[in-house]
Amino acid sequence: LRHSEKGELSALKVYDRINKISKSDWSFYEPDAMKFAQIQIIGKWVAIPCNGSVALIDRRTGELKKGRIILPGRQIFRIAALGSNSILIHAESELIAYDFNSMRPLWKVEFKSGITSFHTSDKYVWVGTWEGGVAVLDSRNGSILNRYLHKSKGVHVVDFGRRTLCVGLDGTVSAMFDTREIYRNRSREPYLAMFAEMSHLDQLICGTSDGSIEALDINSGLRKWKVEAGAQVISLSSSKDAISVILADGRVANLSAADGAVLWSLRFNGQPPELVVSVQGAVVTAGDNKISLHRLGDGAILKEFQTAGRIAAMTNEDKMIIIRLENGLINAFNINN
Q1: What kind and span of H or E run contains 39?
Q2: How far is residue 197 CA from its own chain's centroid?
Q3: pLDDT tens-digit series, residues 178-203
Q4: How far apart are CA 258 and CA 224, in angstroms?
């Protein structure tokens, strides 16, 4: 329908309708947005992974950057900043660096076993793979500086500044300082691929496959505290002093970052929210075609924003919430409005 004149007019009607219903700061329609990919804020831009391309939208106005990065036929999963003038794209089994201004490729590296996660700095790129390997790349040219086998399938790398935590699905936790490993520990329980970093407390929050939430000390990899959630964790986020979680049984809870004590818990009737982010002084949940703004102290709902479709991804910076709907609409909300 997008390729017909009639379909184009229909898309314009949807674009107008979402503005009226949601009262968002801005809306953008991207029909080729990848259904399961995450949106990413990179400086002044919002990066949208699409089927075969990357769209860059001004996060203040919602205007599309002229030109886009084209990767014909490729599925794009994640995008990140690489220094001040480049971006790094995870496209299927490859990492590809592009110059941000010219949109030209700088280098690429393939990991045939598949990439679980990566993070970047000015000097290095850390990569976790499904086979259990961890690699450190030179961010300037993509050359591999170090590679080792973590002995755990599905290793996820988490950014803590110059220290990188590598968490395997079997519970193995290791840490790297720049390019070298400094410790490795094995936990009793396997972990879900769901983490929230709290660098100011030197701890990593993990949702485990047995329905519990744990805090790991990043200096040793050992457990600081553990609480039983009673249901599988489906979304996890952290703020300065608290951890926000959504559980599979329909509850939204806020936990103390110091010891995991439950600060408040709400149960939703009907379809529970599926995504949560923590913003300044509030907790934001998304689900059931709406966004809910919860008071940090007791979870009371302060505001609700209706959307014209199911929410597939959500991110935030400061007090700006940006969502992507399954139908290709991207919306920005300022929680103060």
Answers
A1: none
A2: 12
A3: 888 888 887 667 777 688 889 888 99
A4: 9
pLDDT at site 181: 87
DSSP states of 136-202 as a string?
EEETTT--EEEEEE-SSSS-EEEEETTEEEEE-TTSEEEEEETTEEEEEEE-SS-EEEEEEEEGGGT
Amino acid, single-letter form, for residue 309: G
158: how many CB neighbours lie within 10 A of its CB? 23
Single pTM value for the model = 0.82
What is the 3-state composition of the chain as percent helix, strand, coil, each rounded to the nearest 5?
A: 5, 60, 35
Helix (H, G, I), strand (E, B) or coil at 334: strand
Res. 259 pLDDT band, cuts 50 70 90:
very high
Burial class (CB in 10 A: 0-12, 13-18, 19+), 62: middle
12: exposed, middle or buried (Cβ count in 10 Å: 0-12, 13-18, 19+): exposed
Average pLDDT over residues 224-235: 90
- Cα–Cα dist 290/300, whole Å: 16
Give the span between the Cα atoms of 201 and 178, in whole angstroms: 20
Helix or strand holding residue 335 (H, E): none
C-alpha separations of 95 from 41, 50, 81, 119, 278 in Å: 18, 16, 12, 11, 29
Q: What is the pLDDT of residues 132-170, one digit of tens each?
A: 889 999 999 999 999 988 777 888 899 887 789 888 888
